[in-house]
Amino acid sequence: MTDRKFPIGPFVTQEQYTPAEITDLLNTIDRCVGQYQPTVGSLSPADLMKTYREGSWTVQQLVHHVADIHLLHFLRMKKALTEPDYHEVTLINMDGWVKTADGLDAPVADSLLMLDGINRRYLYLARSLTEPMLAITYHHPVRQRLFSQAQALAMSAWHVQHHLAHIRLALA
Predict the structure, then answer these.
(1) CA 20 to 30 Å from 150, out of 12, 21, 37, 79?
(2) Of 3.40.50.1970, 3.40.50.720, 1.20.120.450, 3.30.70.100, which CATH number belongs to 19-145+152-171?
(3) Looking at the predicted structure, is the pLDDT value of residue 2 above 70?
C-alpha cells in the first residue's frame, strides 16, 4: 500500500458484470461490517484522530463517511428502481459532511451500527435485483458518465475497501 491516496488503486468499472462477479461484489459489501468493527470498534480517542496522509480525514471521519456514503448508495439504488425520472444521482458535499458535529465528534460506534443496518437493507435489495434492474442507469455529473446498478454495486464494494485501507494505513 504505497499509494496513500488510492491504496487499493483507483475505482475502475467494467461495462458488464457476470452473475458470479455480482455475487463477489455483494460478498465484499457483506463482509465490510465484519472488517470495520474489529478495526475501529475499540480505538482510543488518539487513534481516532490519526490520518493516513497529510491533510486527509481522520479515522473517525472516515468511519462516519463510509456509513454516510453507504446510506447514499442505498438511497440512489432505491430512487433508480422506483423513480423513472431519476436520471442524475443525488450528490452530497462530502468534505462538508465530515466537518459537521456528528462527523467530527459522534462515537464511531454509532456509525458502525448505522453501517450494519444499512448494509443489511442494501444487500437485501441488491440481492433481489433482476438483470433488467441491474441495467437501470443514472448519470453521475462529477464522474461524467452513466452508471448501471451493477456498476454502482462495484463502486460500493470498492468504496468500503478503499477507506478500510486508509484506516489501516493511518493505524499502522
Answers:
(1) 37
(2) 1.20.120.450
(3) no
